[in-house]
Known about the structure:
By secondary structure, this protein is mainly beta. It is about 10% helix and about 60% strand.
Amino acid sequence: MDSEAQSAEGRLQRVRFTDVDYGNRVEIAFILNLGEPACIEGEVESDKIASTLKIHVFSMDRAIDHSLRANIGRRVRVLGWAFGEHTAHHRAPIVMRVTAVEARP
């Protein structure tokens, strides 16, 4: 993971997934649909993503999570740290821990 924050811009979507491996538990994910493909190049194999149009975005901060929820369906720019998916709970090839959300025109 880089020490500098990255940014991504696109339309934010709230997606509902049913996880059959966990007793049909429902999970909600925020997916950022990009206008142009993104990639990441990390040190470990899971952090090497050549190209994707989707980023699974999340935050552990309540205010940022609220901002994500308030911007569903809108274009946003997010700042944070990106890494490659590596668990069954990651819902896009790139996952980003978001530290800021900015509404875009």
